Amino acid sequence: MIRICPSILNANFDDLPGEIEKVASTADLIHLDVMDNIFVPNFTFTPERTIEIIEFSALPIDLHLMVAEVDKKVSEYCSQNTVSVTVHFEACQDPLQTLKDIRSLGKRSGLAIKPDTPIEVVQELLQEIDMIVVMTVEPGFGGQSFMSSMMPKVEKARRYLEQRGLNDVWLQIDGGISSSTIKIARRAGADTFVAGSAVYGSENPGNMVEKLRLLASGS
Ligand code: DX5
Ligand code: ZN
Fold first, then answer.
1. Nearest atom in ligand 1 to 195's CA
2. Who lines ligand 1 at CB under 6 A?
3. Could you report the per-residue pLDDT of 132-187, keeping only the tens digit for each?
4. Which one from 33, 36, 101, 191 is the annotated catalytic residue?
């Protein structure tokens, strides 16, 4: 199963309900990037604003927390309409416990790794992971180029999941996904795709989501 998750990072922040509406009939989840200007050199939303967005969103939320010392902060950003919460391995003191905490909030637990972090770190956390997120840009900004050099990490992650029979774990790619890169990521084994500027920079965001889905599905 393919999932397309438009990121609203490069959408019009003055009309987020309207921007989300544009992809509501074609996308699976809205990818919401929370940045604290500490873990990454950019700021997006406070916990209060994050919850407002989650609550008015016409689609369920895939929350990507780019927040330092995130272990004890997850619940501040959580609200009902959230399906999945991703924290960064690099921002956790105790990743295993934090992933468990996300599950006990009733959400899918995501673990993201930055480009310099080896995929091997996920191995001993797999029992608490519902989604592995391989970053194909340095986190912080939309519109950067896709790092195809990350594909061996994606392939390895796919092998870990296959070897352990973890068929319900999603494998997400975040950064630089477009109509010219999505097939590369799919071929490496990803099934869940974040796309920000490719979707919101296009004339018709809803149609672009469909196009990305068709490309990933191989048609
Ligand atoms: C980057 C964010 C991404 C970003 C993707 O730190 O995590 O989700 O919005 O944007 P594009 O698709 O433009 O690379
Ligand atoms: Zn993201």
1. 12
2. 7, 9-10, 31, 33, 64, 137, 139-140, 142-144, 174-177, 194-198
3. 999 999 999 999 999 999 999 999 999 999 999 999 999 999 999 999 999 999 99
4. 33
Q: Which tens digit of pLDDT belongs to each residue from 43-62?
A: 999 999 999 999 999 999 99
Select which of 36, 101, 174, 191 is catalytic.
174
36 part of the active site: no
For the chain, give every domain's residue range.
Answer: 3-216
Q: Count other C-beta atoms under 10 Å from residue 162's C-beta.
A: 11
pTM above 0.90, yes or no: yes
The contacts of residue 142 (CB under 8 Å, 6+ apart) are 7, 9, 10, 196, 197
Q: Tell me which ligand sits closest to the C-alpha of residue 110.
A: 2
SS3 83: strand
Q: Active-site residue 15, yes or no?
A: no
Selected from 3.20.20.70, 3.30.300.30, 3.10.150.10, 3.40.640.10, the CATH number assigned to the domain covering 3-216 reads 3.20.20.70
The span from the CA of 4 to the CA of 179, in Å, is 12
